[in-house]
Amino acid sequence: MISRKRFIRNIGAGIAATVASPAILPLFSCDGQESKAEEGGNGLFFKISLAEWSLNRLIFGGQLDHLDFPSYAKEKFGISAVEYVNQFFKDKAEDQAYLKEMKRRCDDQGITSVLIMCDLEGDLGDADAISRKQAVENHYKWVEAAQFLGCHAIRVNAAGRGTAAEVAQRVTESLRQLASFAQDYGISVIVENHGVYSSDGIWLSKVMQDVALPNCGTLPDIGNFCIRRSEPSEQTIEAYLAAECLEEYDRYKGTEELLPFAKGVSAKTYDFDKQGNESSIDYKRILKLMRDARFSGYVGIEYEGHNLPADEGIAKTKAMLERLGQEMA
Question: Which residues touch 296 (CB under 8 Å, ≥6 apart)?
Fold first, then answer.
């Protein structure tokens, strides 16, 4: 199944795991402050947002313009909080006129810009110091754009070649530099489990401990815990996409390990059973882990299935989250 995650994974990285146990740091909501979710009368202990990648086929296919994404989320699904993907406005990070139009459209309709998911800006764990420094600095413009739009965070990736310990050290240094820069803008830097080392809950939790900055955290992606794939037939994205997942980290264990550092959650869905539940992920169990961790931030819907049209998959995900969330109230 094609996903945005796989486009930015490191094809040649090896797999290893550390054994350190994550320390428990204070849990922060999306705005970086401890707070209770704005329930808005729906009885949920979390807030719902829509990840733009859910509509990637419509956007890439020219059927939906990036600028229309926020209004589409509100009008089609009744969702007034959105998570952008930088791929859909890659050359606009420093285009003030374009960003002003994005902001105006959200402000006019009472829509909250939650975060920007940043891909294809280089590896924060690159073995080459110059390339690594450039990767960090490539994210600066997105920090500035996020502040302008009113987002609370940018989402980055913890990729790199080498052993688990080597990549962890490099990623830690890069995150410290980037989060220190972002701190002056009131922006958090959050890391998603995006395959290979970063999908190992213990590994990423240890990185968070070592960074030890209040505006650096995680964005647990419930459907993205593959840590080892078969060797692709050739070194191309197409070949890698066809590679089989050979080892998957336990998603419930990984979610529990990442939640103490979470400043958001990505609710990945693929397909649904007759009862309206995700057919491959126990979301009741996931929401219980979130509630037990006192998570009260945004849960971003990220539908990646192919058996349903995107609109239907998004609507079913929202209905499931609301139903299960209300059952736990």
Answer: 29, 35, 36, 37, 45, 46, 47
Buried b (16+ CB within 10 A) or exposed e, 191-221: bbbbbbbbbbbbbbbbbbbebebebbbbbbb
User: In whole angstroms, what is the distance from residue 35 CA to residue 156 CA?
Assistant: 24
DSSP state of 272: B
What is the distance between the terminal CA atoms of the chain, rounded to a whole angstrom?
A: 34
Interval 49-65: pLDDT, tens: 999 999 999 999 999 99
How many other C-beta atoms lie within 10 A of the C-beta of residue 158?
28
How far is Cα 329 from Cα 325, in angstroms, rounded to an integer? 7
Helices (H), the chain: 4-7, 56-60, 69-77, 96-109, 129-138, 140-149, 164-183, 201-211, 237-242, 251-258, 283-292, 310-327
Query: CA-CA distance, 88 to 267, in Å (whole number)?
Result: 20
Question: Which residues partner with 226 through β-bridges?
Answer: 248
To the nearest whole number, what is the mean pLDDT of the chain? 88
Element (H, E) at 219: strand 216-219
The structure tokens 């820069």 sit at 181
**pTM for this prediction:** 0.86
